């Protein structure tokens, strides 16, 4: 049991993804291996949930592609995730925003969280 715990801690420490939560708009750069070729495929959308803890943690990203909703579940500590970029920090009141599935158009927009900007240093 101690060996399993040590290996999982190494996996968790090895990843340096930015912190994000439900409602954030992110791009996941996922490495696709087809035969002997390898490419990186970006998947940009809104995070609708984060689930699990430790090495079994996953997150679900939803986007609209050609008018059809597409959801993809990514293991948080997958070796195939190249990088994660955060574009917008969403302002939502729930950890799982499955109600997005029923919305379309302007109703499906997630309000952006306003970031406080530090005032410029006073010149002497």
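Q: What amino acid sequence fits the structure above?
A:
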């Amino acid at each position: 049991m101690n060996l399993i715990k040590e290996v999982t801690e190494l996996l968790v420490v090895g990843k340096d993804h930015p912190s994000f939560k439900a409602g954030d708009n992110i791009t996941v750069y996922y490495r696709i291996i087809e035969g002997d070729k390898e490419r990186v495929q970006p998947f940009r959308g809104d995070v609708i949930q984060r689930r699990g803890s430790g090495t079994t943690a996953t997150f679900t990203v939803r986007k609209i592609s050609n008018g059809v909703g597409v959801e993809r579940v990514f293991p948080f500590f997958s070796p195939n995730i190249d990088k994660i970029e955060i574009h917008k920090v969403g302002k939502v009141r729930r950890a799982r925003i499955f109600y997005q599935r029923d919305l379309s158009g302007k109703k499906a927009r997630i309000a952006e969280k306003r970031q406080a900007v530090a005032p410029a240093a006073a010149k002497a």
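Q: And what stands out in the fold?
A: The mean pLDDT is 86.
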